[in-house]
Hints:
By secondary structure, this protein is α/β, with parallel strands linked by helices. The protein has 10 helices and 11 strands. It is elongated, with a radius of gyration of 35 Å.
Amino acid sequence: MFRLGNPIYLLLLIPLGVAAWWVFRRRVRQALLFAPMHRIPASHATWRTRLRPLAPLLFLAGAALFVFALARPQTVFSRSLRRADAIAIQMVVDCSGSMAALDFDTQELKRTRLDVVKETFTRFVDQRPGDLVGLITFGGYASSRVPLTLDHQALEHSLRGVEIPKLVYGADGQAVNAEEDMTAIGDALATACARLDKAGVKSRIIVLLTDGVSNTGIIKPEDATKAAKTLGIKVYTIGVGSNAAEAPFLARDMFGRPAIAHAMVEMDEEMLKRIANETGGQYFNVTDPKGLTRAMDAIGKLEKTTINTELYNQYDEHFALFLLPGLALVVLGAGLNSWLGKLPI
């Protein structure tokens, strides 16, 4: 389908038309009637007199093409007005150090908890093309990665780049970024509420996924929960792994070779249940990839509201087809006018 990206610029054709009228109006000359016409020598049009009117014509035609170039002619390959049942979903994903546990990949111990979460989340988003989805990650700090969007490809691209922060050690052997390895659940939940506050969609939910205990941050989880409840936002919490259990982690032995080490991990299930209950959501505890998939499928069966979305998937710009010929005509007209003016009479 053909369209103009900026049709307002077509109004410039009005002063251009007035200019054309003024230029050619001036070429009409008044004359006196002279009876003995036979005494006037016959006049013959020369090539110079024939070329003279061509210069303003070329200039005006080039200016008209400039106007069409400004209007941005386009060919739209995919344009649709879609009426869809949708909800606004703010995904809040824990990427603290405990998400590096390998207990979800019981066969090869290669995929971390975060790897499985990213894969499951991607499938979940692919199944909901009409939903507004945003992404917030948190460890010791909450970071808004992607605002609420229908561009799920961009969302998934950002999700693939989410990694667990690596600890950096100073000369004294202490980690200088130890707080990044902690869990600020309250800050993450409050950030998600702020992003959903003006979503413009009736059904707004937060999917909070974590495997730890809130041990840092400015905002307490209880205060963030009250904010979600006040705004009418449901919070669905997902506890990853088992509470107070040993989990395998990838480590290095004394020779620097890859090895598997076990460490105790804790999860505050009571807090996650309380957040879900107070906001009208639901709590899920998952200990394997299938359980996580079932939890995401259950969340997918939520109340929805209808929104209208107009999609422009691809279009080509054609302004160059008007701009380049217009430039050529203007240059040609100006050059012709200048050349004719220098010729002797």
